[in-house]
Design a protein that fits this description.
- By secondary structure, the protein is an alpha/beta fold.
- It folds into five domains: 165 residues, 3-Layer(aba) Sandwich (Aminopeptidase), CATH 3.40.630.30; 288 residues, NAD(P)-binding Rossmann-like Domain (Rossmann fold, 3-Layer(aba) Sandwich), CATH 3.40.50.720; 145 residues, Succinyl-CoA synthetase domains (Rossmann fold, 3-Layer(aba) Sandwich), CATH 3.40.50.261; 203 residues, ATP-grasp fold, B domain (D-amino Acid Aminotransferase, Chain A, domain 1); 71 residues, 2-Layer Sandwich (Dna Ligase, domain 1).
- The protein is built from 26 helices and 39 strands.
- Strand 1 and strand 2 form a beta hairpin.
- Helix 16 runs parallel beside helix 17 and helix 19 packs antiparallel against helix 20.
- The longest helix is centred in the first third of the chain and has 23 residues.
- It is flat, with a radius of gyration of 32 Å.
- The two termini are 15 Å apart.
- It holds the Pfam family Succ_CoA_lig.
Length: 906
């Protein structure tokens, strides 16, 4: 019977782009292990056992396959039901275990050893191990390099002809970076295998016109794919004039990519045949999977399990397909007959239905694509995989994504931030602010307020637009014009009314327009040329908008030639409203040898507002990319061990409570959460260097006086409920109480007003300041998120809050504060202040935000933190109220831990 955690099973991508399945070993693996050992070369056996060991005895088999998953753990890697690698550790001392692994010769060099080390290391840490020791023969250089390059802190000794390596299993920045780099290379190559096939089979190719199978085949042939195409039909000898085969197994040559267009109930059988054939990747255009409901989702999971187990990646199901416009490939494995020409834009779309319209619109605008992927239900290959590929793809300079949900939001934001530092990433998100995950797609619906989604995307460097039209508007600038170096815009035109529209639109978009240069309705090409030369040469101009409308005399192409020439020689972007045309008109295109649109082409827009908005997207992105990236400050007074113990104690001793929380824009119900406040909350916060003011619950006037005497004067009596603060304004608190009589009077007043509706507490008074609210915790779409706003009824009613992903850098913390509209209250002198020494200490507030973000990021058990109010005054940021909700930690946190593909149910 299984006695290991479910999350110890995982699908992983190998360095050559193939896949393997990792799982703990079981006694049922006896025959697989015996066969595995028999396939090993004598050299590999000698390196593993330090002696000839041609055969495993029955005793060896029992010992190796029977482990306790505590002190003895072994993981195996399988491909197509064959065992290809084994790693194990055996505890030899408290917190120390000996590790060893062996990889089948035919699969060495594929990265199995490295990924196995990551997973066995994670399992060992869960079981309390802190160190691995490994004995390796000096001539086993490959194995030594695996340990040395893992990024862990390591020590090495040499004794009696054996090298002993000692690895500290605590993750380091180096080990995390090594893991991320390997992940990027592996996932990139897995996508490259799909996009650069040498041969393609169409399984389900039909002799009937307008069917999916025949459409896919005709599009491959019509797109002039540079390799052989093999139709697969159970009966036909030929389909659309191309020889057909009864099954993929009967194709005499290697098949790299298979387009699957058969009924949903037949797909798994086809996938098994592809696995036997050695196909590298699948495009499943068939529908009838997760989008149809639970039964279809089961079929979809089986499809992915079967494919990954055989080393294949899957695009789809229920997808439009993929395309690669590289002339060396010319792959149109989509259901769209027409593809845009070669270009520098990579496009990912979840929607298959929308994909065809997107491709048509790209072509109509005169733009070009490098690659296109419509992932449909996104059961395996996702936008995250494509970002890994596009990061190092020299043919792709701009990335566009149409998103309906985020499968792994943490990974999305991490990859997007890294990619956006090199290439613009433009995303359009469908649905409203509380949209749930579309049927058939992986979990991850975006449940944040719309403006919060935008701010989190911006934090990651993603240019988030509202619709497909805006996406292409922005892409035209990114693909064909340089990035602006600043916000100052020059305006040139032959229509004063349109020029004023440009200026007004620029101000609304946060740009800084110069006064327009009006050339008049009779302006010639020479007039435009002179004006452009002057404006582009000005140091305080970073970009130019050119307005050109028809004059009374016949229109010539001279102005277009001027725009093209100036654009080609300028390092500043130029956009235009050339004759109200949209896209890259032929007159404004710089054309390559193959007729493709080149950089220097001038984007045109139908209205001044459209042109300015696209330019503003480019400007804000350029500012993000050029800004200081921020750093994670050292916080030496954090005690994670004490925090973990505090959480465990609170979860064990507290009574579960049900609580509805207005969490980041959506009502979130905590049915199995533990609410903590008072001493427990203060204790946990103190583990992260956060001091919360103590308060004492009181139920009578005399108790209030005693509490005030204990805490010290001046004192405060208040209703311990943020809800009352919103309902009652300042009437829920009595402050600046300096005598016992003041305390008695305050208690009586609040008790008379609220009765038993709210508990009353006594607290020492803090110096006057600006009251704020900090909330943090786990959001289902983005992971750990921090929210900030002022503790003011007006701010709450206007939803004046800002959001950032945790953990915060110092730049993120500053942005979080400045992003709220009421932020100026924190940067001026408070009422009654007479000197700068009384200005609120915003630096202390920034540090508090960073500490809170570290807490929620480090401990998934902390579901929600509510610091209300946090009073910011000249002496610091003072936490006057703290509540938390704890929960049992999930087994696996997305994008945390060793590499793995998005999961299916094993």
């Amino acid at each position: 019977m299984q006695s290991y955690p479910n999350h110890w099973e995982a699908d992983v991508v190998l360095t050559d782009g193939g896949t393997a399945h990792l799982r703990p070993i079981t006694p049922e693996d006896a025959d697989l292990l015996r066969e595995f050992h028999a396939r090993l070369s004598p050299e590999t056996i000698y390196y593993r056992f330090f002696a000839p060991y041609p055969k495993l005895s029955d005793r060896d088999i029992r010992r190796f396959t029977n482990v306790d998953y505590e002190d003895r753990v072994a993981l195996v890697a399988t491909i197509s039901d064959s065992l290809v690698a084994v790693v194990r550790y055996d505890k030899v001392a408290p917190e120390e275990a000996e590790v060893a692994f062996v990889v089948e010769d035919a699969h060495q060099g594929r990265g199995l050893a490295s990924v196995l080390l990551e997973h066995i290391g994670a399992a060992a840490r869960e079981r309390g191990m802190r160190r691995f020791i490994a004995d390796v023969l000096p001539e086993n250089r490959r194995m030594i390099n695996v340990f040395r390059e893992a990024g862990y802190t390591a020590q090495q000794t040499f004794d009696e002809g054996v090298i002993r390596l000692t690895l500290d299993l605590q993750p380091t920045d180096d080990s995390t970076e090594v893991m991320r780099a390997r992940e990027q290379r592996a996932e990139s190559r897995s996508i490259a295998r799909l996009l650069f096939p040498s041969s393609v089979a169409v399984i389900g190719a039909s002799r009937t016109a307008h069917t999916i199978g025949q459409t896919a085949l005709r599009n491959l042939l019509g797109g002039e794919f540079q390799g052989p195409v093999y139709p697969v039909h159970p009966e036909a000898r030929a389909v659309v004039g191309v020889r057909a085969y009864p099954s993929v197994l009967e194709i005499p040559d290697q098949v790299d990519l298979a387009v699957v267009a058969v009924r949903a109930d037949m797909v798994v059988d086809v996938v098994e045949q592809c696995a036997e054939k050695g196909v590298h990747g699948l495009i499943v255009v068939s529908s009838g999977f997760g989008e149809t409901g639970p039964e279809g989702r089961v079929r979809q999971d089986e499809l992915v399990r079967t494919a990954r187990a055989a080393g294949m990646r899957v695009v789809g199901p229920n997808c439009l397909g993929i395309a690669n416009t590289d002339p060396a490939v010319s792959l149109n494995a989509t259901l769209s007959p027409d593809l845009p020409p070669t270009g520098t834009i990579g496009f990912f779309s979840q929607s298959g239905a929308l994909g065809r319209a997107i491709l048509q619109r790209v072509a109509e605008r005169g733009m070009g694509l490098s690659t296109f992927v419509s992932a449909g239900n996104r059961a395996d290959v996702s936008g995250n995989d494509l970002m890994q590929y596009w990061q190092e793809d020299p043919a792709t300079e701009v990335v566009l994504q149409y998103l309906e949900s985020l499968g792994n939001p943490r990974k999305f934001t991490r990859l997007a931030r890294r990619l956006a530092k090199q290439k613009p990433v433009v995303a359009v998100r469908s649905g409203g602010s509380t949209r749930t995950t579309p049927t058939g797609h992986a979990a991850g619906g975006l449940a944040l307020p719309d403006y919060a989604v935008t701010s989190l995307f911006q934090q990651a460097g993603v240019v988030r637009v509202d619709d497909i039209t805006q996406m292409f508007d922005a892409a035209q600038v990114f693909a064909y014009q340089p990035l602006p170096e600043g916000p100052r815009v020059g305006v040139i035109g032959n229509s004063d009314s349109l020029e004023l529209l440009v200026k007004d639109a620029a101000v609304r978009q946060g740009l800084k327009p110069h006064d327009p240069v009006n050339l008049g309705p009779q302006a010639t090409a020479e007039d435009f040329d002179r004006a452009l030369e002057t404006v582009l040469a000005a140091e305080d101009v970073h970009s130019v908008v050119v307005v050109f409308v028809p004059a009374l005399h016949p229109i010539s192409d001279d102005v277009a030639r001027v725009l093209r020439a100036r654009s080609l020689s300028s390092a500043k972007p130029i956009v235009t409203t050339y004759l109200a045309r949209q896209g890259i008109p032929d007159e404004l295109r710089q054309v390559g040898e193959r007729g493709e649109t080149l950089r220097g082409s001038v984007p045109s827009y139908p209205s001044p507002e459209d042109a300015v908005r696209a330019l503003a997207y480019a400007t804000r992105y350029a500012q993000w990319r050029n800004r200081r990236p921020g750093r994670h400050p050292e916080l030496p007074d954090i005690d994670r061990a004490r925090a973990r113990a505090t959480i465990a104690r609170a979860l064990k001793n507290s009574t579960n409570q049900t609580k509805d929380i207005a969490w980041f824009g959506g009502e979130r119900r905590y049915d199995e959460e533990t609410a903590i406040s008072g001493e427990d909350a203060r204790e946990l916060l103190s583990c992260y260097g956060i001091t919360a003011y103590p308060d004492i619950p009181v139920s009578s006037e005399e108790e209030a006086v005693v509490a005030a005497g204990e805490l010290g004067y001046p004192a405060v009596v208040k209703a311990d409920s943020p809800d009352l603060r919103l309902r009652a304004g300042g009437a829920f608190v009595r402050a600046d109480l300096r005598t016992p009589e003041d305390v008695r009077s305050a208690f009586a007043s609040l008790h008379d007003r609220f009765g038993e509706e709210a508990s009353l507490v006594v607290q020492r008074m803090a110096a006057p300041g600006v009251p704020t609210v900090i909330r943090a915790g786990d959001n289902q779409s983005f992971g750990s998120v921090v929210s900030f706003g002022l503790a003011d009824v007006t701010a709450e009613l206007l939803d004046d809050r800002s959001f950032r992903l945790a953990p915060l850098t110092d730049v993120d913390a500053a942005d979080l504060i400045h992003a709220v509209r009421a932020a100026p209250l924190l940067f001026g002198l408070p009422a009654g202040a007479t000197s700068l020494a009384e200005q609120p200490n915003v630096e202390a507030l920034e540090e508090l935000l960073i500490r809170v973000s570290r807490l929620v990021e480090a401990f998934p058990e902390v579901g929600y933190v509510d610091l209300d109010p946090v009073l910011v005054n000249a002496t610091g940021a003072h936490v006057l109220g703290a509540r938390m909700w704890l929960r049992e930690a999930p087994e696996v946190r997305p994008d945390v831990g060793p590499r793995r593909l998005r999961g299916v149910t094993f």
